[in-house]
Please model this.
Amino acid sequence: MNVRTHIEAVYEEVRRRNPGEAEFHQAAAEVLDSLAPALDRHPDYAENGILDRLCEPERQLIFRVPWVDDQGAVRVNRGFRVEFSSALGPYKGGLRFHPSVNLGIVKFLGFEQIFKNALTGMAIGGGKGGADFDPKGRSDGEIMRFCQSFMTELYRHLGEHTDVPAGDIGVGGREIGYLFGQYKRITNRYESGVLTGKPVAWGGSHARTEATGYGAVYFAQEMLATRGDGFDSRRVVVSGSGNVAVYAVEKVHALGGRVVACSDSSGYLVDQDGIDLELLKDVKEVRRARISAYAEAKPTARFTARGTVYDVPCDIALPCATQNELGREDAVALVKNGVRAVAEGANMPCTPEAVAVFREAGVLFGPGKAANAGGVATSALEMQQNAARDTWSFEQTESRLATVMRDVHTQCRATAEAYGDNPDDYVLGANVAGFLRVAEAMTAQGVI
Ligand code: NDP
Ligand code: 2IT
Model:
C-alpha cells in the first residue's frame, strides 16, 4: 500500500464523514501530514486500519441541557462528549463552556487529546466535551443549575475507569465542584477520580491549577536551552488571561522574564513594567472582570480594544487563549520583531499558515499537544492520588510535572531526529511519538 495515498484517503474520508467541521479537519490534517515516515516503518499499521479507526471517535454524545435562569426563564443548551480513544486508558480531557462550542470543535480537541495524552507517557485515553453555554455574566446560581443539568445526563457515561473530564475554557474549580456534587448525588458514590481539577481541599491535586501554564513555560525553557537561551530578562507576550495564561505569567516571572502584554476577547493590555500578577489575578480570578479593569487600576498599563497582542514586540510568545487566534500576519509581525520561540499554551492557537512562517524563519515552535501537556499530565497525577487516597505536597507534584515536561521535550526531539532530519521539528516529533504509542496499543488490543 502506498503510504501517502493511504493517508490522503483517510483524510478525504474525515472530510466526507464530518462535513463542515473545519477545526476537526484542520487538526486531523496536521497530524496526518506528519505520519508518512511512521507508516513507512510500520506497514502493519495501515493494514490494521489504525488511522481509519483513530479518526473515527469510539463514541459521540450530544444531549439537551435545559436549565432555568435567575428570571425564571427556561434556557436550553447543547451538551457534548466525544469519547475518542480508550487505547491507553479511560477517556480523558476537559469540558469547554463557550458559545462557540460545536461538534467539530469538540472533535478537534478530542483528537488532539489522544496524542497529547499519549506523549505524557501516562495511562490516559483521549476525549473532550462541553456545551455552547456562555458563562459570562451568569450568577453562581445559574452556573450551578447549568452544571447540575449537564451532569444529570453525562453521569451515566462517566467513571474513574471509563471517562474522566476536567476543565477547559469556561470550566474551572467552581464548575468542577458543582459537576462533582451532582455526580455524587445521582450515583451515591464519592468517586474522587471521576473528575480532575477539583479544589485541593477535597480531592484535588496541588499544582493542577498552575500546571498547564507552568508546563508551557517549562517546555519553552527546554526549547530555548537547546540554543543556550532562556527566559532571563526576556520580554514575553501571553495571549488570554484565563487559567493557562495567568500561570504562564507567574512562571515566566519566576524564571526572570518579563510579561509585557496579555489579552482577553475584548482586547489587549500592555504594561512595560511587567504584568502585575496579583492585580491580574484579582481582576480575572476574584472579580471575574474584563482585562480593561487592570488598566483602570494601574496607570502604567494601556488597554487597546483593536489590533492584536502580537503587535507588541517580544522575544517569546505564548498563545494561551483559543484556536486559530494567531494567523499568518501575526506570525509575520512576531518574526519581524525578533521572536525566538513560540509555545502553544492553548490548543491549536496558531493557524497552519502561521506555523509555516515560524518554520521558515527558524523560530522554535512548540505545538500545543506537547507544550500544554502539563495540565492533563497533572490531572493524571490527581487520578493517581485519588486512587491511592493520598495527597502529595505542592513541591512533589510540581517536580513530577517538571519531569514530565522535560521527558515530553526529549521525546519530541529524539523522534523528530529518528523520523525526520531536524530535531527542532517539534510538530513532527510530537505527532509521531504520540501516534506510535497509541498505534502499538491499538495493534495489541485487536480490531475494536
Ligand atoms: P479560560 O476560560 O480560563 O480562559 C480563556 C481565555 O482565552 C480568556 O482570557 C478568554 O477571554 C480567552 N478566549 C477564549 N475564547 C476566546 C475567543 N474565542 N476569542 C478571544 N479570546 C478568547 O480557559 P483556559 O485558560 O483553561 O484555556 C485556554 C486555552 O488553553 C484553551 O485553548 C484550552 O483548550 C487550552 N488548554 C487548557 C488546559 C487547562 O488545563 N485549563 C490544558 C491544556 C490546554 P474572554 O474571557 O474574554 O472570553
Ligand atoms: O486541553 C487539555 O489538555 C485540557 N483542557 C486538560 C484536560 C484534563 O483532563 O486535564
Q: What stands out?
A: The mean pLDDT is 98. The domain at 209-371 is CATH 3.40.50.720 (Rossmann fold).
